[in-house]
Design a protein that fits this description.
The protein has helices at residues 5-16, 62-75, 118-122, 135-144, 174-186, 190-202, 213-216, 255-266, 279-285, 371-388; strands at residues 22-29, 33-40, 56-57, 97-101, 107-110, 223-225, 231-233, 252-253, 270-271, 274-275, 317-319, 324-326, 339-343, 347-352, 357-362, 365-366. It has 389 residues and is of the alpha+beta class. It folds into 2 domains: 5-73 and 184-388, 3-Layer(aba) Sandwich (Beta-lactamase), CATH 3.40.710; 84-173, no CATH class.
Length: 389
């Protein structure tokens, strides 16, 4: 197991002091693994150690996989980035823009000025939002009895837009709609499509929407940090029998599996001799598609689930076809133009196509952008770059 002593020490201290539950971290270049380690416990109340093959909820790290599936179908001419998405999923035609609430507390809705496209959905410029960062969506859900997205109920996809498609960047349920588009044109459920076209070819044997009994034995618990910093395991599980598979956040997986995915992107769409995407498609996905827009500061509307999100303060941020893009070099050593994203329970990845390195950091705790997890993740990244120099 390739190891870097400074990272081992850092993660050991963090988990032994109970500042963190369990951590798994892996990093690789396009030629092989440079670091792999697991620390702490899968569940702070129990003895089972966190291991490199521990299964975690990767949440929104699902989005890049769904984006990859959509781009495979763009390559085949079965999806188009710029045609109205309603041509594929008719249900999108009911999406309205929320203008506020009337005196009786009922939502005021209007038709959007332009149709939503797959490009809008992949770049989070569709107008869809999440109640975690938009109080008015939480209010809409409340007054209309609309379920939240993690119920995996189709009704959860009916929340309104918070602006006209293309006007701004707002993180939201867009990629769940992309999942619906993939299912519609492929004629397969998302789990089957992913298995046949991404997971099987890349050997991602532990990435799944439905955790099997043998995988459950390796499943890490989600923990909640209280206002004093202490961690408690919580009951968390997505529905066993969902109405739809959540392309925006439904997957569970392991660090090694996700690393295989990042190495495929690093390899220009090919890994281990298997082509998942064409190189020009990966180049397209890695471009900033939202200029002149910026990825704004995301103020929390649900502090138990997320802290405020301010990644790369002071730097303009771009968005590719399902990836965050840092437009300048990062202090860790990450090159400008690298790709990244994260999952709600403090899981993170980055893909540096310039320096040919990618990394995955997995923990299982809420709220998102936990300060301790973020600092550990940044130090891990910096130490990986130091080791490669």
């Amino acid at each position: 197991m390739p190891t870097i002593a400074s990272i081992d020490k850092l993660f050991s201290q963090a988990t032994e002091s109970k500042a963190m539950p369990g951590i798994v971290a892996v990093a690789a270049t396009d030629t092989g693994t440079v670091y792999e380690g697991a620390f702490g416990k899968r569940d702070l109340g129990k003895d089972a150690p966190m291991t490199v093959d521990s299964i975690v909820w990767i949440a929104s790290m699902t989005k890049a996989i769904t984006g990859t599936a959509a781009m495979q179908l763009v390559e085949r001419g079965e999806l188009s980035l710029d045609r109205p998405a309603t041509e594929v999923v008719a249900d999108l035609s009911t999406a309205k823009v929320l203008e506020g609430f009337d005196g009786a507390g009922q939502p005021r809705l209007r038709a959007p000025k332009r149709p939503i496209t797959l490009r809008h959905l992949l770049t989070h410029t569709s107008g869809f939002a999440y109640e975690i960062w938009r109080q008015e969506i939480a209010q809409y859900q409340s007054v209309t009895n609309t379920p939240g997205i993690t119920t995996c109920a189709n009704a959860a996809l009916t929340t309104p837009l918070v602006f006209d498609p293309g006007d701004r960047w707002e993180y939201g349920i867009s990629i769940d709609w992309v999942g619906k588009m993939v299912e519609e044109v492929s004629g397969q459920k998302l789990d089957r499509y992913f298995q046949d076209n991404i997971f099987g070819p890349l050997g991602m044997k532990d990435t799944t929407f439905k955790v099997s009994p043998s995988q459950r034995a390796r499943l890490a618990s989600v923990h909640q940090r209280d206002d004093k910093g202490a961690l408690t395991p919580i009951e968390f599980a997505l529905p066993e029998d969902p109405e739809f598979l959540m392309g925006g956040g439904g997957l569970y997986g392991t660090a090694r599996d996700y690393l295989a995915f990042t190495q495929m992107i690093l390899g220009g769409g090919t890994a281990g001799g298997v082509q998942i995407l064409r190189r020009d498609t990966v180049d397209l996905m890695a471009q900033n598609h939202i200029t002149p827009l910026d990825v704004p500061y995301m103020k929390t509307a649900a502090p138990g689930l997320s802290n405020d999100v301010n990644l790369f303060p002071g730097m303009r941020k771009g968005w590719g076809l399902s990836f965050l893009i840092n437009t300048q070099d990062a202090p860790t050593g990450r090159s400008a133009g690298s790709l990244a994203w994260a999952g709600l329970a403090n899981t993170y990845f980055w893909i540096d196509r310039t320096k040919r390195v990618s990394g995955v950091f997995l923990s299982q705790l809420l709220p998102f952008v936990d300060q301790i997890a973020m600092e550990l993740c940044a130090t891990f990244e910096a130490e990986v770059y130091r080791a490669l120099r």
